[in-house]
């Protein structure tokens, strides 16, 4: 009963998923792929015995495809997800669900209209055990009510094509999702601050991003995507009675020449490899029942709306409110 | 050649200093004290063989007093420090140097007019070895140029008399000084954000305070003085090539019942006892040469000016610029 | 090209493997099982669509079985592994390879006679990333030549049937393998020391076990299998220029009420789940090529020989030499 | 009421004490010194306004000396301590109290005969806050009854004159004292193991030293005095319910180029400076009352007896019993 997966977008993250499905996870196979880089797509397809289609939506339509993973460029996500919904096929869409709030809303409305969850958005941090421990500590009352969240998102470098807004749509969007998920409430406003620019950065970097939630929790996110030294993601949830915080995973230490050294993760693969694996296996396992555990289309919509507000806050140099529609009952938190 | 110290203000911090001078440090004795609580002052004086004066300024004038420590309420500091300058006596003034920028400026002008440093302000963190290591790492180029500072100042509880501005003048003022000192530049603007209030706090708490420095470094300070769980001071200096950060001192760990536990300092005495000791011994040692190592009157003035701006930012709900006078050459950093 | 696995022994570790193969790993399925508890075996088989055989060796002979996992009681391992070698089928044998050195030797000789590696022994720690980092640090010269190893093996509790020798054959045997593997040399002598007995232990516990290697490295192992508080495995390799050490994985920390708390693993599954997964996937992947990466039959033989010497050292209260045969060239380290 | 201290031995540790008494502590002054290096002694004396005597015992006899610190070579300690007892003067004797058990016994007997404690032995670790936390955790029942102690004593290098026995008498003797003090019981047997020698060491190094206590607690000490990388002292006390362990003090961390680095202490001064200071101040404070808090002559005797047994164990290659006299009631633990 192998789940037959069609995958759209055989770039970095796409082949990362294909490799994992093929060689590390249980219960699924990639049977169809598409990429505009058609030679690349064919090579990848041949490597795993899949069909390489000429059009993205052919993957969705393929009768040998039970479920779809979307790893194409973000601006194509909405149309592809909508096609999956139209075809009644479960879809795991890499973040973002859409590049505009309006597009994300279309997905929410289309899915809600079917009355059945088909969409999961690839916010893999929800599957990271450290984040899960923080959530569990918080929900069990171990630190009281939430007051503040301090988050850091550092990346060693980004390409020359980097622009300020990308830090929000590509990196901070993860912090948007983890904040909403950990706190169990929506973000209602966004503002930004920036100061000195790193000489290593093609555009303003670092940036400090500030969220406010419904209940008044303040979230600050340091986004610094040219930090040079490694990949460093942190999250501290401060409550009325204490705090819970991620620890950077360290498996061994070396002491020599007067110093103790531990390794900092080099990139997102090292840091979140286990989370990506847990997410993908859980999604594969959930397809038969439809009981998806990760981020929903609503979460994808809310994340896009907050990111949108963040980009406007960046462009307009002011605090921007986030306006969400009333949550369809379909998405009510269970 | 014992240094004869007169101490004004025999409250908490005053008796903490007296006890240390008398029983733990070298080269000094307390020979005169004053406090409005005259019975208390007399008891303290008797305990160390000092004279208890009827007026604060009598301590300054006392011919058996070589140098003065001021630990009185902050609003009295300026007059007392000016008296010390007038008498040509070295003075270690607990923070703040003054409660208004104008008052602090009077001290700066009076001292500069004498052409001789007499004033040290009690920013003891400059004597904390952790902070010193961060400064040394930064100055030796180990993390590149400064971009950001993240600071946290948490206190378990404050009295019912607590008001929002006190977090700035009493707690954040330390972060003002450490930021200026670590970075070697002035703070030029202050803003605040606040969200949900801790139910344990008599007034809004926590507060997020933001500084900008001359060169554009962004400093954020979480001030949370009712955090319940302990005393927690953190400082991370993020540079273009890496970062340096304080570690909370841990001397031992206990593992039982599935958990590893280390102790969080209960209060400022535990956390900064060694720094207070180092500061006071260094000041005693510096009196004969006049080569003081700690915060100067200029530093006290700048800290007061930034704190003033912070209080205005709090009251007016906006970003406030800090206007400092041109630094007298007398205070030029060596 | 799914690898069809026959599994002997559907107890704790056996079902742990079956569950993983079926629901978490890629490229394999369990097609046949056996257990003396035949009802249990049938249930397990039904759950995964496998055949439940009446005899252990029927699993080996089953033409729908490409490779075998042995998770039966240790005293049955030799015969079952020999049957696999006889049938020319790859076998992953849980430790120990044999319960006597003589039996382990039979396996080594039988395998060497075939001229082809078929046997891997389930020392899963070789797949733990922390251990791998230590090995890599050591082999790259980061700590100089090896001088000492300090190891700790703590388990919260053991059943009432526990006897002293079991600590050696069940727990310390892992330290035997990791020591040999990390150091790349054989253990030549074993001795033990014991003192006060934990009141929680059915027999003497803790025990200190000491190894000496060919080149004179001293290894000490604290074996304490009733430590109550959690599962705690440590390894510090001390070299001439520094040391490398395992860090207990910590994913998050909670601070409240004056203490910082991190979780200690509750048992071997929590601590080594990722290592078991990596081992099993790597073995599955290796079957087609025969290029196994883990512990060989020689490693299993050497571990058994050292454990045997340890049991004799325990019984006779003296230092016992380990006598290994000359290593067949077949097993020469690559 | 300054305590007038006479100090014998103006070498490294002697001048370290003199400097501290003169410039960092309260209530004492060095009024007389002696050293066989008489020029050096005179310089030191001149520096602090003390008299430089021609004979060690002249320091003891000096009527301007209230109490004596002995920092001379170990083999001279007994005679000098006995002279202090004879003169009725309190004495802080650096470890060891004596170089033979017989000599140490003489001190015990002489002091007991006076019926008054005059002798404190300079085991400064009893004043280290980390060790104190372990003791406090243990005594409050936080880890149950003691079963094991793991200790490490590493030093970067030792001079070419180093011989094996020195590791025991100079370094391990500290572990002897801390073990006895933490556990509150005597060590009854000692054995040693050694393996590969560090190429940096003039004689066998490292050595593993094993103690057994009255109640059967096993203590193992790694003594490695040419570890190259820094000064590293560890102590883990394992109990029936958990363990307590020293943490190496870390005040800050630096992260750059893919690694997190913390500093390892370079030597004993860095690691135990605060403990030396606390010890010396406490001793000064105790002289007027005679209520000394540190190691007594009995502790010095027991440490010497265990060290003696250790040296014999080294020379004779066997486990050696420690034979202590019955403890005079004078020394009964309070």
Give the gist of this structure:
Four copies of one chain form a homotetramer. Chain A has helices spanning 12-23, 38-48, 56-61, 77-87, 101-114, 129-139, 164-183, 268-286, 297-316, and strands at residues 3-8, 28-34, 51-52, 67-70, 91-93, 119-121, 146-154, 187-194, 207-213, 218-224, 232-239, 242-246, 252-256, 259-263, 320-321.
Structural commentary:
Four copies of one chain form a homotetramer. With 334 residues, chain A is of the alpha/beta class. Chain A folds into two domains: 3-125 and 274-296, Rossmann fold, CATH 3.40.50; 126-271 and 303-321, Dihydrodipicolinate Reductase, domain 2. Chain A is 37% helix and 24% strand. The first copy, chain A, has nine helices and 15 strands. The first copy, chain A, has helices at residues 12-23, 38-48, 56-61, 77-87, 101-114, 129-139, 164-183, 268-286, 297-316, and strands spanning 3-8, 28-34, 51-52, 67-70, 91-93, 119-121, 146-154, 187-194, 207-213, 218-224, 232-239, 242-246, 252-256, 259-263, 320-321. In chain A, strands 12-11-7-10-9-8-15 form a seven-stranded mixed beta sheet, with helices on one face. Chain A has a six-stranded parallel beta sheet with strand order 3-2-1-4-5-6, with helices on both faces. Chain A has a two-stranded antiparallel ribbon with strand order 13-14. In chain A, helix 4 packs parallel to helix 5, helix 6 crosses helix 7 (164-183) and helix 7 packs across helix 9 (297-316). The longest helix of chain A has 20 residues, at 164-183. Chains in contact: A-B, A-C, A-D, B-C, B-D, C-D.
């Amino acid at each position: 009963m192998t789940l037959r997966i069609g995958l759209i977008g055989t770039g970095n993250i796409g082949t990362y998923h294909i490799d994992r499905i093929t060689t590390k996870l249980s219960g699924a196979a990639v049977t169809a792929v598409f990429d505009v880089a058609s030679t690349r797509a064919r090579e990848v397809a041949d490597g795993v015995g899949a069909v390489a289609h000429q059009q993205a939506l052919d993957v969705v339509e393929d009768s040998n495809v039970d479920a779809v993973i979307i790893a194409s460029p973000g601006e194509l996500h909405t149309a592809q997800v909508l096609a999956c919904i139209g075809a009644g096929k479960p879809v795991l869409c890499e973040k973002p669900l859409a590049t505009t709030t309006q597009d994300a809303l279309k997905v929410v409305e289309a899915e809600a209209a079917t009355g059945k969850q088909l969409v999961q958005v690839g916010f893999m941090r929800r599957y990271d055990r450290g984040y899960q421990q923080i959530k569990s500590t918080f929900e069990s009352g171990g630190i009281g009510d939430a007051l503040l969240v301090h988050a850091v998102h550092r990346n060693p470098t980004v390409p020359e094509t980097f622009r300020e807004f990308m830090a929000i749509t590509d990196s901070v969007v993860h912090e948007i999702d983890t904040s909403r998920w950990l706190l169990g409430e929506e973000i209602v406003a966004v503002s930004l601050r920036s100061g000195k620019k790193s000489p290593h950065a093609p555009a303003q970097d670092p940036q400090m991003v500030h969220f406010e939630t419904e209940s008044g929790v303040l979230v600050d996110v340091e986004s610094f995507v040219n930090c040079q030294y490694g990949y460093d993601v942190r999250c501290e949830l401060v409550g009325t009675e204490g705090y819970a915080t991620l620890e950077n995973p360290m498996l061994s230490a070396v002491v020599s020449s007067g110093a103790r050294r531990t390794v900092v993760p080099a990139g997102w693969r090292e840091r979140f490899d286990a989370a990506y694996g847990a997410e993908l296996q859980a999604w594969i396992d959930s397809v038969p029942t439809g009981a998806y555990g990760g981020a929903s289309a609503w979460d994808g919509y809310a994340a896009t709306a907050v990111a949108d507000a963040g980009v406007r806050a960046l462009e307009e140099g002011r605090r921007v409110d986030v306006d969400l529609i009333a949550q369809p009952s379909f998405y009510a938190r269970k």
